[in-house]
Amino acid sequence: MAEEKITHKRVLKVALPIVLSNATIPILGAVDTGVIGQMGLAAPIGAVGIGAVILAALYWIFGFLRMGTTGMVAQARGAGDGDEVSALLMRGLMIGGAAGVIILLLQIPVFWAGFWLSPASPEVEELAQQYMAIRIWGAPAAISIYALTGWLIAMERTRTVLVLQLWMNGLNVVLDVWFVLGLGFGVEGVAVATLIAEWSGLMLGLFLCRSAISAGQWRRWARIFDPVRLRQMAVVNSDIMIRSVLLQASFMTFLFLGAGLGDVTLAANQIMLQFVSITAYALDGFAFSAEALVGGALGAKNRAALRRAAILSSIWALLGALLLMGVFALFGPALIFVMTTAEPVREDALLYLWWMVAFPLFGLPGWMLDGIFIGATRTREMRLAMLQSTAAYVVFLAILVPTMGNHGLWLSLTLFSIVRALTLWRYYPALEASAGQKV
Q: Is residue 264 a contact partner of residue 341, using CB atoms and an 8 Å limit?
C-alpha cells in the first residue's frame, strides 16, 4: 500500500480534534468546582480541589505511557508491522493495569504523602480523604487510558480521541449534577461521578481500539512478551518519565519561589499560569500531529516525509501561537478581571501580562521539538536535553530572581523554554539522518 503524503490537511486532521478535546479538560474542572460550590461551604470546594490535584499528580507520573506508546506505535505502523502495533497496545494496557493495582495497594502511604506535601485544615483533609478513597479505585482505568489514547494518536485517529474525551467528560458532568445537586451526595458524589466516567471511558476506549485485539492478537504472548521489545519499551518510558519529572519540578520551583515574593504576587502568578496552561492545551494538538507523522515517517525510513511532517506541523503551531498572542494582548486584561476581583492582584497581574503575550512564541519551539522527538522515540536525547535545560534554569533563577524579583522569575522560565528548544535542536540533524534516504 502506497504511503499517504504529508499534507496540510493531514496535519490538521490529526491536530484539530486534539485541540477541541483539550478544551473540554478545564471545563470539567470548572463544573466540578461549581457544582460542589452550590453546597455553600468552603471546605468541600477545598477538599475536591486538593484531592483532584494529588491524584492528578500521582497519575501524571505514568504520563510516559501515552507519549511512549504514540512514538513506538507510529513507527511500527510506518514500517507496516501490524503485529507490533497490536502488541504495543497490549503491553501498554498491561503496564497501566499493573500500575493502577500498585497504587491501590499503596493508597494509605500515598494519601499520607499527599497531605504532607499539601497540608490543609482537618475538615478539608477529612473530606479530601473521603473523595480520594473513592476515586483511587479508578486508577487502573485512568492510567490504562493513557495507553489507549497514545495508540489512537499514533494511528491518526484523533477524532476518536475527541469522542472518548467528550464521552468521559460529558458523563462526568451529568453525573456530577445528578449526584450532588439531585441526590445530595456532596463530595462523595463528585468522586463517584469521576470513578464511573473513568471506567466507562476505559470500556469505550477498548471498543474503539478493537481492531488491535480482534483475530486473537491479544493472545500472541511470545510477541507481547518479547524481551528485546520489552527492554526497548522500558528504556523509552523511563527516559520520558525522567524528562517529565524534571519538567514538573521546574514548574513547582517556579511556584515555590513565587510564594516567597508575597501573597499578591503568588496570586498574580497563579492567574498568569492559566495563560500558560491555555497555550499548552491549544498547541498540544500540533505537537501530537508531529508525534504521529514523524513516527510514521521514521518507521517507513522516509527522511523527506519526516522533515515535511516536522515543518508543516510547526507552521500550523506557529499560526496558533501568533493567534494566542493576539488574543492575550487584546483580551488579557479582561480575562484577568474575570479571574479575580481582588484589585491588588489585578494590578500585579497586569504588570506581568506582556510575559504571557510573548510566551506562546518562546515556548513553541520546545513544545514542537518535544513532539518530534517523542514520535522518533529519541528519548535519550530528550532526557539529556532536559537535564541540561534544568541545570541552566537553576543558574537563571539564582542570578535573575534576586536582582529582578518576579520579572526575573518569568524571565528565567522563558529562558528555560528557549534552552529546552536549543538543546533538543542540537540533536535534530542526527534524528533526521536516522530516517534513511527514501524520498
A: no
- For the chain, what is the domain count? 2
8 A C-beta contact, residue 13 and residue 156:
yes
Q: How far is CA 360 from the centre of its chain?
A: 17
Shared-domain flag, residues 56 and 146: yes
Residue 230 is assigned to a structural domain of this protein: no
Distance CA 92, CA 98 (A): 10
- CB-based contacts of 142, cutoff 8 Å, min separation 6: 59, 100, 198
The rounded Cα 224 to chain-centroid distance in angstroms is 27
Q: DSSP secondary structure string, 188-235? A: HHHHHHHHHHHHHHHHHHHHHTGGGTGGGGGG-HHHHT-HHHHHHHHH
Q: Which domain, by its residues, includes 106?
A: 1-225
Report how far apart, in Å, the C-alpha atoms of 101 and of each of 107, 193, 268 are.
10, 20, 39
If you average pLDDT over residues 411-437, what whole number do you get? 91
- Global pTM? 0.86
Q: Tell me which residue of 415, 407, 370 sits closest to 391, measured CA to CA.
A: 415
163 contact partners, CB below 8 Å, separation of at least 6 = 204, 208
pLDDT at position 99, please? 92
122 and 202 fall within a common domain: yes
- Rounded to whole angstroms, the Cα distance separating 414 from 355 reads 8
Where does a domain end: 195, 225, 255?
A: 225
Backbone angles phi, psi at 438, to 5 degrees: -65, 140
Residue keyed to cell 476518536: 160
Phi and psi (nearest 5°) for 352?
-105, 5
Q: Are residues 210 and 294 in the same domain?
A: no
Q: Report the C-alpha gap between 320 and 368 in whole angstroms.
A: 12
User: Is the model more confident about 430 or about 116?
Assistant: 430
Angle of helix 139-154 relative to helix 82-105, nearest 10 degrees, comes to 160
Amino acid (1-letter code) at residue 334: A
d(CA 295, CA 310): 10
If you search the block for the grid coordinates 483580551, which residue do you land on? 331
Domain assignment present for 254:
yes
Contact between 269 and 348 (Cβ < 8 Å): no
Query: What pLDDT was estimated at residue 21?
Result: 85
